[in-house]
Amino acid sequence: MTLYEVLLYFHILAAMFWVGGSIMLMIISGRVDRTGDVQFRARFMQTAAVVGPVIGVSSLLVLGAGIGMVLERDAIELSHTWIWLALTLFGVTAIGGMAYFGPASKKIVAALEAGQTEEADRRMRTFNFASRFDTLLLLVIVGLMVFKPGG
What we know:
Blueprint: H1 3-35, H2 38-72, H3 81-113, H4 117-147
Helix pairs in contact: 1-2, 1-4, 2-3, 3-4
């Protein structure tokens, strides 16, 4: 077993948590939002705030293992289109995740707890749209890793 294989294993394992967790949160969020149950929605958003950091840490593990694989193999370079494009999209989703999802979750919970369901609904629609867009970016990143355009 080579160092590259170990890094690849952790890269794929962490990507499963990152992408899979994001997809599951997106799906469940859409379903929970449609229930209309204010307390259930607030509990879900509080839970999502716990799961979010797990997704964030797994994304950093994906990044670290990926960089390790690039450093380990001479045939792989940061200048390859699929790598720099994936890193750029990673930056977009990471900054978006840190800057938007955590604070947005807290605002939705606060609105629900204050009985401001219209405000919570408005924020939840935006949250779900952002979640879908972020998940799309993650799927594009996975596609870049699999198909390696320009590599």
